[in-house]
Amino acid sequence: MRVDVVTIFPEYLAPLELSLIGKARATGILDVAVHDLRTWTSDVHRTVDDTPYGGGPGMVMRPEPWGEALDELGPGHLIVPSPAGVRFTQPLAHALAGEPRLIFACGRYEGIDQRVLDHAAERMPVTEVSLGDYVLFGGEVAVLVVLEAVVRLLPGVLGNADSLIEESHADGLLEAPVYTKPAQWRDLPVPEVLRSGDHGRIARWRRDQSLLRTARRRPDLLPALPPQALDRHDRAA
Ligand code: ADE
């Protein structure tokens, strides 16, 4: 997968060198380039923003440098982090993991002139993506989040592909709690069922814990489950 990130703060993306993302880059599964938007400015002040038409607070990113950047880097699936975007979810991470080319446009201030997105949409898919219902200073941290979620789904990045199957959100439910040794820590034992060796009981317990956790913490996820996601035993639980 080839990824280009355009930002006015390239240093913000330094964590892309680290850990599993760094490993995916080293093995050639992932090719990432981070670009400074100001490379595509032509005035001496290297201006990237201006006051909003119609008035209001803050500044808006001017279209010209973005247009030049996308002319040079595109086409690819353009991802624009924004609190006004569609919610970033595990299914969206899976969809993006199937793309050969992603281009991230990091907005700052009040956002990017809408014509940049409208113009790009004539040549490439454009998705505005929100991490959640809160506002960040800009899109850089959101790019790190989206890329981490996407890159770990690329074949060959995770050592153990099984860990993708049971994790939270893989089946629309939250994952059950996990334990390791020692069997007793302070006054807290590991639940007996997990030490029983009875795989049927363990699977049932994990499933019940998943359902309970989801019902308590994220009841909003339950109506979104497809009908076949819940079996006869689940309904009893
Ligand atoms: N930029 C600013 N706020 C954001 C959010 N909540 N999600 C994604 N990008 C953002």
TrEMBL record:
Q: Which reaction does it catalyse?
A: guanosine(37) in tRNA + S-adenosyl-L-methionine = N(1)-methylguanosine(37) in tRNA + S-adenosyl-L-homocysteine + H(+)
Reply yes or no: does the keyword NAD apply: no
EC numbers: 2.1.1.228
- From the record, what ranges are coiled-coil? none
For whether the record's keyword set contains S-adenosyl-L-methionine, the answer is yes
Q: Which keywords does this Swiss-Prot/TrEMBL entry list?
A: Cytoplasm, Methyltransferase, S-adenosyl-L-methionine, Transferase, tRNA processing
Q: Which family does it belong to?
A: Belongs to the RNA methyltransferase TrmD family.
This chain belongs to which protein, by name?
tRNA (guanine-N(1)-)-methyltransferase
Task: Supply the source organism's classification.
Answer: Bacteria, Bacillati, Actinomycetota, Actinomycetes, Micromonosporales
Question: What's the name of its gene?
Answer: trmD
